[in-house]
Amino acid sequence: MKTPRDIDALLPDNTVDAGCAASFDVLHSYVEEELSGGDPATSQPGLAAHISSCPACREDYRGLRDAAALFGDAEPLPS
Amino acid sequence: MAALHALLLRVARYEVSRRAGSLQLRGPELEDIAQQASDDALMAIRSKIAGFRGDSRFTTWAYKFVMFEVSTKMGRHFWRHRNASMDADSWERLPDPGAVAPDQRTEHREIFEALRRAIELDLTPLQQRVFVAVALNEVPMDAMARELGANRNSVYKVLFDARRKLRDSLRTAGYERPTQTSGSAA
Question: What does pTM read for this prediction?
Answer without folding.
Answer: 0.84
